[in-house]
Design brief:
The chain is of the alpha/beta class. It has 3 domains: 78 residues; 129 residues, TIM Barrel; 34 residues. Helix content is 45%, strand content 17%. The protein is built from 10 helices and 8 strands. An 8-stranded parallel beta barrel has the order 1-2-3-4-5-6-7-8, surrounded by 5 helices. Helix 5 links the parallel strand 4 and strand 5. Helix 8 runs parallel beside helix 9. The chain binds (6S)-5,6,7,8-tetrahydrofolate (THG). The site of (6S)-5,6,7,8-tetrahydrofolate (THG) has 17 residues, from strand 1 and strand 4.
């Protein structure tokens, strides 16, 4: 599982406060803790007023890149903003995101042509987020075909089918799986990704829903997740599911993570 650490996001109140107060130490600590927890990318999302987004993203990227070697995932709804801050990345990372909305693909794909950058592609367009599977698959296909014009191959693309709240659409998870299967049948090397918390919107016990969504999505073949790697229960779900699927020889990853106190009770809370 490719882990995209989501914690450096201005929509999280404490992070928004740290951004407003230019609290470098707070951001650095989040970068280091997520990297140590196993993040493969560190997502940076400003969520500030538009006029502050550029300087904030650059500020966040610099702190993360000084603190850890983990590549950044540049998260902005504005493709031109991503284009502006792109040169501040010190190594190839992940773009979050393109879609068929407006000219996003035409802005981002030339930027990452001939590089090792990967890109998240949301299955939405100018009409919004489709409620059916077929439109999602069609949009994914269009984006892959646009990418091919810039020599960007499917293995560099993470399709995000934008899972709907289960409370609003009872087939939300099943549609997610259906989209994943169809997209992978078309492009066997493509990656499928998702955030883990949209599914439980407006339900009680959200974390319970989120963890079970994660387990089932892993079983279905999800390749990457935008998630909180500091959520120990979520990490235990990941390791347990990987072991159950025969992807953890002798359950070594699971056992080592437990022994090091990364899952289960923290080491200092265990009986000697
Ligand atoms: N798809 C793509 N990008 C995305 C999302 C997506 N970017 C933004 C968002 N969704 C993913 N990022 C977050 C960041 C923080 C939280 C949720 C999604 C959040 N965090 C709480 C916190 O850190 O305090 C709780 C974390 C927890 O449950 O453990 O709510 O869907 N492409």
């Amino acid at each position: 599982m490719i882990i995209i650490g989501e914690k450096i996001n201005g929509t999280i109140p404490k992070v928004g406060k740290a951004i407003a107060e230019k609290d470098e130490a707070f951001i650095r600590d989040l970068a280091i803790r997520q990297a140590e927890a196993g993040a493969h990318y560190i997502d940076v999302c400003a969520s500030t007023a538009p006029e502050l987004e550029e300087e904030t993203l650059i500020w966040l990227m610099n702190i993360v890149q000084d603190a850890v070697d983990t590549p950044v995932c540049i998260d902005s709804p504005n493709a031109r903003m991503i284009e502006k801050v792109f040169k501040h990345a010190k190594k190839p990372g992940l773009i979050n995101s393109v879609s068929e909305e407006g000219d996003k693909c035409e802005v981002i794909f030339p930027l990452i042509q001939g590089t090792e950058w990967e890109v998240i592609a949301l299955t939405c367009d100018n009409r919004g987020i489709p409620s059916d599977v077929q439109t999602r698959v069609d949009i994914a296909k269009n984006i892959v075909e646009k990418a091919a014009k810039y020599d960007i191959t499917p293995e560099r693309i993470h399709i995000d089918p934008l899972v709907m709240a289960l409370s609003a659409d009872n087939n939300s998870f099943l549609n997610f799986v259906d989209t994943l299967k169809q997209v992978k049948a078309l492009y066997p090397t493509i990656k499928v990704t998702s955030g883990l918390s949209n599914i439980s919107f407006s339900m009680p016990l959200r974390k319970e829903i989120n963890r079970h969504f994660f387990a089932l999505a892993i079983f279905a073949g999800m390749d990457s997740a935008i998630m909180d790697p500091l959520n120990r229960d979520m990490m235990a779900t990941l390791l347990a599911t990987e072991a159950l699927l025969g992807r953890d020889r002798y359950c070594r990853n699971f056992s080592n993570a437990y022994r090091k106190g990364k899952i289960g009770p923290k080491l200092e809370d265990r009986k000697k």
